[in-house]
Amino acid sequence: MTLTNHMLTGAVLGKFLPWPVAVPLAFISHFVLDASPHFWLKTGAEHPKNRIIIGAVVAIDIISAVIISIWLITSGHISQFYIGLVAYSPDLPWIYRFAIKEKFGKLQPSKGNRFIQFHMNIQKYERPWGIFVEVLYGATMFMILLRI
After folding, report:
1. What is the mean pLDDT of each run of 10 residues along the chain (148 residues)?
2. Which terminus of the chain, N or C, has less C-beta within 10 A?
3. Residue 124 contacts by C-beta under 8 Å, 6 or more apart in sequence?
4. d(CA 119, CA 113)
5. Distance of alpha carbon 102 from alpha carbon 47, whole angstroms
6. What are the residues facing 127 on neighbouring strands?
7. Which region, left, alpha or beta, applies to residue 126 given φ > 0 means left and ψ of -120 to 50 means alpha?
8. pTM of this structure
9. Residue 141 CB: number of other CB atoms within 10 A?
């Protein structure tokens, strides 16, 4: 799932649940979302066309997450912002792994610990058509966050 969808899920949980309950549920929600169908191009990701598509999706995702974060903070919903960060937090090691594998190219990231392996293994439903699932899910979470 995208950064935006993880953060929106955490923010929605933070809106409806008290802090001590929302934090662990936001962390767990990350894995539930990652085990559901979502976007990625596993095969042919090295192809220039696919790299452009992935780059565009990542850029849109980061921009959306920053805008939502600024909106949450400036509108006084800082706890929802923090819970959104908790929901995203399991992906932080991927930033490091991506930098090693993609940017430095020849260095293969290590297999990782059990947590990393678990996180990799649940990503079974990454598909190109998952972008539609992500957009629909994100729009729904955003509407819930806005309306209630």
Report:
1. 96 96 98 94 68 88 97 97 97 76 61 80 90 96 90
2. C
3. 35
4. 10
5. 13
6. 39
7. beta
8. 0.87
9. 21
